[in-house]
Amino acid sequence: MNIAHWLQRAAKIYPDNAALLRGTEIVASYRQFFDRVCAMAGALVNEYRIKPGDRISLFAKNHTRYLEIMYAAWFAGAIVVPVNAKLHPREAAWIVENSESSLVFTDTDHLADITEVLPACVSHIIDLESPKYQALVGASPLEEPVARTLNDTAWLFYTSGTTGRPKGVMITNGNIQAMVFSYLSDVDEVSSKDAALYAAPISHGAGLYNFQHIIKAARHVVPVSGGFDPAEILSLAPRLGKVHLFAAPTMVKRLVGEACASNLEGDGIKTIIYGGGPMYLADIIDAVDVMGPKFCQIYGQGESPMAITALPRNLVADRTHPRWQQRLASTGTAQSCVEVRVADEKGNSLPAGESGEILVRGSAVMKGYWRNETESRKALRDGWLWTGDLGVFDEDGFLTLKDRSKDLIISGGSNIYPREVEEVLLTHPSVLEVAVVGRDSEKWGEEVVAFLVVVPGHFLDVEELDRHCLDHIARFKRPKDYIVLDELPKNNYGKVLKTTLRKNLEEQIRI
Q: What is each CA distance from 468 to 457, 460, 473, in whole angstroms?
């Protein structure tokens, strides 16, 4: 099954439905959307020699053409490689090279920088605003989607690993099908009157929700700003009506804060899916109090996209159950397409009330990491995905996250792995040792803090460290604070005790 069939079907049944919008401006109907995709797919196959299974990378900010490119790629049988637009060009180039993408789509803001560092595997780079892109739309169309199976990879999602290098999660047509059907069963309803608003990056979680709305021939809206602006969203939603958006917990908090400041209740917003990190209990209680029963929670990973557990709106808004607060602090119950259990280090299931690693099995779980058998074997054992997250079930099957076994930092909904920041800082001639941890932040959820030991005789220039980081990694990964120590705390085996560093940060905050 090729997921592009969903667009083909929607365009045939609802050709005049509005499909792509920039703010309130209709850019394309479903008939126009589909016709553009068919033409682009024809160009990809006949002019750019794209074959089934080839990779096509997208390194661009949110745009209605982002969706055109993805569906044209799938129509042609290719694998889409969406790259976070906030990454440093060298980080993006590494993903392009690792995926061996032969074609890269980008926008004007990124074109010059990414062109300078493109690997040899890339034959063509196309600016979304260029005549070259417009020529694609005028090509001879491909009449039918290229045949694909449920086990064929459709979306190659790069997620950082503990080694500091991203890993390409192979998300198949079958994974996406399971995620979509489970969403419609367990999370929320979608109708042709709805509007998916892409305020968070289409390259990540927000983009995965396009499928539910394609199936129902609903609207797809990119804000004029192209990103997350709470005031813009609250102004746009009443004019669109029945708006759905995905938001990280920190985004939800900012949106609710703007609603309170403007004396608004989120009119026009139907559903806000929150995920990508834990949300504080007080914050979601405030959100429901201010904006009403609009919220649904998803817990998933790139390795099981948006499909591990869910807490639908009726449970998020419930205040009658004796344990409603405990349930609201959880991530909900297992979605229909997966089995979820909590296990000890040997894989033995633990009873309710005992904390262990969260394991997932089912049709939404990835088939592995792209060309990385070692990491695939670590993550997938006996059919189960070992998530690296720690959690506990209650007696009713509600899963509460307790901690992350990996040192992941989630800042503003974006994942940051300390190792890659540490490796960059260690290349600075004044840095002898470094350990990076996350610190609580009201604005971002967490922020990056670097503990440093300076090379004897060297002077540490913070501005120079900032410039060094910005030359190698994305701005959002740069430490917000540098703390110099005489030595890093370590155990008898020489391992840095990050728990001690976090405790020191907490004590400083309390003081």
A: 20, 12, 9
Bridging pattern class, strands 384-393 and 399-404? antiparallel
Q: For residue 500, what is the DSSP state?
A: H
* The 431-441 sheet, strands edge to edge: 431-441, 445-454, 481-484
Domain boundaries, the chain: 409-510
Other beta carbons within 10 Å of 116: 10
Residue with tokens 């948006």: 306
- pLDDT tens, position by position, 48-99: 999 999 999 999 999 999 999 999 999 999 999 999 998 999 999 999 999 9
Which amino acid makes up residue 158?
Answer: Y
Tokens 């020489």 belong to: 494
Task: Tell me how far CA of residue 246 lies from CA of 270, 273, 288, 476, in angstroms.
Answer: 12, 5, 16, 20
What is the percentage of the chain residues whose pLDDT exceeds 70? 96
Domain 409-510: give its CATH code: 3.30.300.30
Q: Cα-Cα-Cα-Cα dihedral of 128, 129, 133, 138, to 10°? A: 130
- What's the chain's length in residues? 511
Q: Are 501 and 435 in contact (CB under 8 A)?
A: yes
Q: Sign of the CA dihedral 396, 401, 405, 410?
A: positive
- Residues 445-499: tens digit of each pLDDT: 889 999 999 999 998 899 999 999 999 999 999 999 999 999 999 864 456 888 8
E-only strand ranges, 286-383: 295-301, 304-311, 333-334, 338-343, 356-362, 380-381
Sequence-ordered list of residues with C-beta below 8 angstroms from that of 56, at least 6 positions apart, any chain:
44, 50, 69, 73, 78, 79, 80, 81, 101, 102, 103, 104, 105
Rg of the chain over all Cα atoms, to the nearest angstrom? 23
Helix/strand/coil for 27: strand
122 DSSP assignment:
-
Its pTM stands at 0.84
d(CA 29, CA 485): 60
CA–CA distance, 410 with 480 (Å, rounded to integer) = 14
Q: Tokens standing for 403?
A: 């901690």
